[in-house]
UniProtKB/TrEMBL annotation:
<feature type="domain" description="CTLH">
    <location>
        <begin position="54"/>
        <end position="110"/>
    </location>
</feature>
<protein>
    <recommendedName>
        <fullName>CTLH domain-containing protein</fullName>
    </recommendedName>
</protein>
<dbReference type="InterPro" id="IPR024964">
    <property type="entry name" value="CTLH/CRA"/>
</dbReference>
<feature type="domain" description="CTLH">
    <location>
        <begin position="452"/>
        <end position="509"/>
    </location>
</feature>
<dbReference type="InterPro" id="IPR050618">
    <property type="entry name" value="Ubq-SigPath_Reg"/>
</dbReference>
<feature type="region of interest" description="Disordered">
    <location>
        <begin position="385"/>
        <end position="418"/>
    </location>
</feature>
<dbReference type="InterPro" id="IPR006595">
    <property type="entry name" value="CTLH_C"/>
</dbReference>
<feature type="compositionally biased region" description="Polar residues">
    <location>
        <begin position="385"/>
        <end position="401"/>
    </location>
</feature>
<dbReference type="Pfam" id="PF10607">
    <property type="entry name" value="CTLH"/>
</dbReference>
């Protein structure tokens, strides 16, 4: 799982789209065109940047219902979605919950208000809401007699606070579809991949390297469907292929899939979105993961670089000095404020100017951070990660070079702002900058950590531009032993240097690089002989297009970033681990299902797998193993070593189903309630005859 190649540039685009859609970043600086996310070529658009306000309204209504403030929720519905209240089925459920909440307060005036609610609202709705509504109305009257604490009463279920969350989940599903307030694409993709990952690991009996993250991120609770329970006796006017695809993709019963398609008026992709968004994520934890990834990739400013005149805190400040020095949050986020900083609970904290700072620079406020970069300056049992001595001085001297270029690159990074306008989630962040879903241990606030971080980002930037010679020189000056322990990375960088020289027509220098570096490295590692031969072919066809196709610079720069980061004690973000593992199990799952995922293009999963690298595919895979796995004990039933084109086309793995009619496969699946793979295996035993399969099993 850990060695699965991922197109990190595609993930960057998805993550930036998510952060922008949720207003998590300050978008005053234009995002690089390489991070733009074009609309998908699918029947429905998943663009979410224009639906932020609708999602915010949905969350506010949900929180009001969960808190028992039904009247406030109804008022917001009247303001933003009045047509929903025209549905008496929904209005009846809301009024019934409002009646219970009024009784729950226990005051005489609230009891009178509950009776008035019965007369004016609940009773009229019960007459034509749905067939069972009037019986429910008579049943709810028992709440006048039985106390809310009586667990044995006939209305104990109505008194339960769980009812609040059920009605809140239902309204969230209805509002989402009504307002088209679907979650950002990345959020849905993550839900889908994690759910498949968990199902695959459970079915195959393999251990997951990200089980702890998955259990915390993807909640077990699922919102009720937007389709209210009704009886449909007529035959569904939908293709059975669509019904089965939806049922298996989001773990629905066949009838549940039919109801969902009916609600979406037969639109398979819209029904898929509705069902996928019912699965709930831990939003603060997701924000943590996204922020950590953005900082690591250089998309968001880490806050390492302090404004001019503000001293760097190399040691923890004493209590008496707390008000006279600028404070850094645990993720190095530093924001210049105008004289005051505000904690997460809304309390204003007075600040003072430091004597060493300029007059126009005030003390920074302590941000309520959702995520932290996990930097361990001196990891245990990693002697090579020490930042003391020559390593640190070499990093500092390397950073002194091209300072203006680095300042320009930092200027392109965005500022993380968090969910400052979403009080429902901002309240889950504590005043010390941590949250319920903190992922990382406390980090260092020293200047060496900032230097290391900037050095890694600079090497990544140089590698992504194809400046391989400069990368090798800088890394060797930082640590002469680095490439001795990472020969595959050195081989890849020398490949880039060789191809660049060929492209400029300097064949003599290119051959010197091949003789002095590529040849000796390939002689020590036979796996590099094939990439070496393919590299030398560039001498025959030195066209720019061929060279561009042969240079997976994005993948190489990411592998280099991870390897150097680990060398310096900088852990890769946990989101990268999640994506590697889930994309691997996505491949394996659809190999078992013997079909292609109908939704992978909609969710951009195919682009995440598209690491077209004809020359360096095997070397990149080996590099990922070397730089990303450290003592992993994950057991899998099949190998993940495969070419990029295989990962995006699971149908190529097995064409068994091509010999059987699709209707035969679906018939066996439906009659025997079997997964697709099991149905195909049974058909294989009976020459593809569905009737024979069913007869034999029922005989």
């Amino acid at each position: 799982m850990e060695s699965t190649p991922v197109n990190w540039e595609s993930l960057d685009a998805l993550v930036v789209d998510f952060a922008r859609s949720e207003n998590l970043i300050d978008d005053s600086v234009a995002v690089s065109s390489t991070l733009s996310l074009s609309p998908p070529s699918t029947p429905c658009s998943l663009s979410s940047s224009s639906t932020y306000q609708s999602r915010l309204i949905n969350r506010q209504i949900r929180r009001s219902l969960e808190a028992g403030d039904v009247e406030a929720a109804i008022e917001m519905l009247r303001s933003h979605a009045p047509s929903i209240l025209e549905d008496h089925r929904i209005l009846f459920r809301l009024q019934k919950q409002k009646f219970i909440e009024l009784l729950r307060r226990g005051k005489p005036e609230d009891r009178h208000a509950a009776i008035e609610c019965l007369r004016t609202s609940l009773a009229p709705c019960a007459l034509d809401a749905y067939p069972e509504a009037y019986e429910e109305f008579k049943h709810i009257l028992l709440a006048f007699i039985y106390d809310k604490d009586d667990q044995n009463s006939p209305v104990a279920n109505e008194w339960s606070e769980r009812k609040r969350f059920e009605i809140a989940g239902l309204m969230s599903s209805v509002l989402r579809a009504h307002l088209h307030a679907y979650d950002p694409l990345f959020s849905m993709t993550l839900r889908y991949l994690i759910s498949i990952h968990k199902e695959y690991c459970f079915r195959q009996g393999v251990s997951s390297p990200i089980s702890d993250l998955n259990e915390r991120l993807l909640l077990e609770e699922r919102d009720p469907p937007a389709t209210l329970q009704e009886s449909f006796y007529e035959a569904p006017p939908f293709d059975e292929v669509d019904i089965q695809a939806l049922a298996h993709a989001v773990e629905l019963t066949r009838q549940g899939a039919i109801d969902s398609l009916r609600f979406a008026k037969g639109d398979l992709f819209l029904a898929f979105q509705n069902e996928l968004c019912r699965t709930r994520l831990d939003i603060p934890m997701l924000d943590n993961l996204v922020r950590e990834y953005c900082v690591y990739r250089g998309i968001v400013d880490s806050g390492f670089t302090l404004p001019a005149g503000i001293p760097i805190i190399s040691e923890p400040t004493k209590a008496g000095q707390a008000e006279s020095l600028p404070s850094l949050s645990r993720d190095y986020s530093l924001e210049v404020d105008s004289g005051a900083s505000r904690s997460s609970d809304g309390e204003t904290i007075s600040t003072h100017k430091d004597s060493c700072c300029n007059d126009d620079v005030n003390v920074a406020k302590l941000q309520s951070s959702d995520a932290e970069l996990r930097y361990a300056c001196e990891p245990a049992n990693h002697e090579i990660c020490s930042t003391s001595g020559s390593h640190q001085s070499c990093i500092s001297s390397s950073l002194q070079k091209n300072r203006s270029r680095r300042a320009g690159e930092r200027g392109k990074r965005k500022r993380w702002r968090g969910r400052s306008d979403d009080l429902s989630y901002a309240s889950e962040v504590f005043c010390d900058g941590s949250s319920k879903s903190d992922l990382c241990p406390a980090t260092s606030k020293t200047k060496p950590a900032a230097d290391k971080y900037e050095f890694v980002l600079e090497m990544k930037e140089l590698a992504s531009r194809g400046m391989a010679a400069e990368v090798v020189e800088e890394v060797n000056s930082m640590d002469p032993d680095f490439f001795k322990q990472n020969p595959v990375l050195l081989f890849q960088l020398k490949q880039v240097q060789f191809l660049n020289l060929v492209n400029t027509g300097d064949h003599a220098s290119a051959l010197r690089v091949a003789c002095s570096h590529l040849g000796p490295l390939a002689a020590k590692d036979p796996a590099l002989l094939k990439p070496l031969k393919e590299t030398l072919l560039a001498l025959i066809q030195p066209t720019e297009e061929a060279l561009v196709r042969s240079l997976p610079l994005d993948a190489l720069s990411t592998s280099l970033q991870v390897a150097i980061g680990r060398r310096l004690g900088i852990e890769e973000p946990q989101l990268m681990k999640i994506m590697r593992a889930t994309l691997h199990t996505h491949n394996e799952w659809f190999k078992l299902q013997m079909c292609k995922d109908r939704f992978e293009s909609l969710l951009r999963i195919d682009s995440l797998k598209d690491v077209s690298s004809p020359m360096l595919a095997c070397a990149l895979s080996k590099s990922n193993v070397d730089s990303c796995t450290h003592g992993s004990s994950v057991v899998t039933t099949s190998s993940s070593g495969r070419a990029a084109e295989d990962s995006s086309s699971p149908a190529q793995v097995s064409s068994t189903d091509a010999f059987y009619d699709e209707s035969a496969i679906l018939k066996v699946m439906e009659f025997l309630a079997l997964p697709r793979a099991d149905a195909i295996h049974l058909l294989a035993q009976y020459n593809g005859n569905a009737e024979t399969v069913i007869e034999q099993l029922f005989a």
